[in-house]
Amino acid sequence: MHEPRDSDPGTGLVESGGMPGSATDSDGAVGYRGVTACHAVGISYRQLDYWARTSLVVPSVRDASGSGTQRLYSFRDLVVLKVVKRLLDAGVSLQNIRKAIEALRSRGVEDLAGITLISDGTTVYECRSPEEVVDLLQGGQGVFGIAIGGAFKEILGSLSHLPAEPAGQEPQEPPAVDLVGDELAARRARRRAG
Predict the structure, then answer these.
(1) Which of 23, 59, 69, 114 has the fewest beta carbons closer than 10 A?
(2) Cβ distance 86 to 151 under 8 Å?
(3) Is the model's pTM score more than 0.70?
(4) Strand partners, 146
(5) 64-98 pLDDT tens trace
């Protein structure tokens, strides 16, 4: 991802310094399963699985660790997934998306809220102020932008009716059933009763 020319990294788009809604606690306090992430972002489970297996967007709460385990995605992961989807929909190459996502991956949730991604279809630029956006637009070529703060609001709206689970919980294994013991206990109970 490229920084625009003559950028002032000290300025940001979010003056209040906060995220919309109360999602700041959801970047670590809760996780979202793959199916929930798909519904919130608007992608197929097959895409989500492919992106996780190819390390494009790896769940930061809990990755799958074998057959039957569930990936858990943080709120920040969902925002990054939404950005990937929008960049793909706009025709940006997967190689350039990987570069952009790598730069976003190291940022916290509140840092992401102040970023606008601008792309001309080949290069993705990170803009942190309205002046940086204007500088890119003055080049005269067609570009499109993704305000990550807008993606936050969309995902918050989607998550309002979707389930989450506490991030600290490990997946529960079903209790081992001792079929021989249960069968013997049932036989004894029948003999006593009858």
Answers:
(1) 69
(2) yes
(3) no
(4) 117
(5) 777 777 889 998 899 889 989 988 888 888 888 88
